[in-house]
Amino acid sequence: MAEAVFHAPKRKRRVYENYESPLPIPFAQDHGPRKEFKVFRAELMNNSVIVRNSEDMEQLYGKGYFGKGVLSRSRPNYTGSDPKLVARWKGMKTNMPIITSEKYRRHVEWAAELLRRQGQDEDTAHGVLEGYTAPLALPGTGGHEAVPLHSEVDSDVASSADRAVGREEPSVTSGDSGKSEGTEDPSRGSDCPRQGSGDAPPPTDGSRDCAAGDGTPLPHGHCCRQDALTPQCGPRPEDGGQQGGLTCASEEPEHEYVLVEEEACDGSPDEDAPNEELVQKKRLVCRRNPYRIFEYLQLSLEEAFFLVYALGCLSIYCEKEPLTIMDLWRAFPAAQPTFRTTYMAYHYFRSKGWVPKVGLKYGTDLLLYRKGPPFYHASYSVIVELVDDHFEGSLRRPFSWKSLAALSRVSVNVSKELMLCYLIKPSTMTDQEMESPECMKQIKVQEVLLSRWVSSRERSDQDEL
């Protein structure tokens, strides 16, 4: 058997992140105060493990690159702002999201549809949203030629709208310097998914809801659109209410203020425009967002179990009850039949210093990164198989020569090496022993690198010798 040659990983050209030491976080120092060990919280939702707390999301992704943002490409940094509008209004010193009027109109339509599904008639829903989404007074922050115009909202109208939706909103005063009261950093996402008494409105932009009515299973999707007008906020840990949905432990305001770019008519006619048409100018108007979109960190089942079992820094809850290691070991295979096999390989490569990620987009089980995806391209595409001492057993993916050559060609075209990872279990191991993660102590691992032999290249190498 030929000896495999290790090739250095391909480094990315543009890196905008600093490398942090991975988990586990040290909780004690030789010459310093003792630090508490951080235990993160996650939720098991519809066969997925999600993290909602913004600080936990940042720690888990920054220290080991666990999971990915459901609304972002990798790091959970969704802000809700339109990048083009942010660049246009870069002189505005504000942390509020800046969105287009079309996008804000869609949010209002979703909120109106949800109110109608909750039993509100058309006039009531229209009246509630009209008062709730009225322009709010906000002092200009300066720094831009086009000063945003803000209309004063009647306090009676705003308070009546808040009472109609079942809660009180903090008033926005003109004494605030920089942003309105209750405005939160949009990069932090939210910790509180709303749960209404009816189904969410159908998506109109290609995304799907990940929170529905009481008792409704949560479908798979990339985006969570929730209603800020809904009185309920899901069952809280201290409430003895219904089960289902995600618990809400957030103490932040349930509303969000956004800056909407709208058109304002200038009274001076344009000399070049026919019929003395009015000049259309842009302005930013502060409004409440009636339908918020939240960013979550979604962990793969292998990543979640590694954080629970190997590092002990994650606690996964299902309907307000924490799940034990054995509960997860039995529950995850029901959602993903190949979980135990892929987790053994994931645990092995993580312990070797690699950062494994799901390799579905390249037709494999895992992708292995050095340090993390922001710094290097994946070096290996891994196929995992569980066999016995004689390399026999029911293969998960039986390859033919044609399919194996095709997969090898795909890996080469994306500058990766194809690796076959064989998990070798003793022939005497029973199925009962496999019902515990302690069975990994008896598993051996053998890696085989697959490369395509090119006859012309072989002949040229011999001629040079």
Low-confidence stretches: 139-254
Distance between the termini: 22 Å
Strand content: 15-25%
| Number of alpha- plus pi-helical segments | 10
Q: Spatial order of the strands in the main sheet?
A: 3-9-2-1-10-11
Instruction: Report the helical percentage.
Output: 10-25%
How many beta strands in the DSSP annotation?
16
SSE string, helices as H and strands as E = EEHEHEHHHEEEEEHEEHHEEEHEEH
Q: What spatial form do the alpha-carbon principal axes imply?
A: globular
- Biggest sheet features: 6 strands, mixed
Structural class: alpha+beta
Average of the residue pLDDT scores: 73
Gyration radius over CA: 27 Å
Overall description:
The protein has ten helices and 16 strands. The two termini are 22 Å apart. The model is unreliable at 139-254 (pLDDT under 50). The chain is α+β, with helices and mostly antiparallel strands. 24% of the residues lie in helices and 19% in strands. The longest helix is centred in the first third of the chain and has 17 residues, at 101-117.
For this entry, give a set of tags.
single chain; 6-stranded mixed sheet
Task: Describe the protein's topology.
Layout: E1 40-45, E2 48-51, H1 54-62, E3 68-69, H2 83-88, E4 98-100, H3 101-117, H4 122-132, H5 155-164, E5 224-227, E6 257-269, E7 278-288, E8 291-294, E9 297-299, H6 301-310, E10 314-318, E11 321-322, H7 325-335, H8 339-351, E12 354-358, E13 366-370, E14 380-387, H9 401-413, E15 417-424, E16 444-450, H10 455-464
Parallel strand pairs: 1-10, 4-6, 14-15
Antiparallel strand pairs: 1-2, 2-9, 3-9, 5-8, 6-7, 10-11, 12-13, 13-14, 15-16
Helix pairs in contact: 3-4, 4-5, 6-7, 6-8
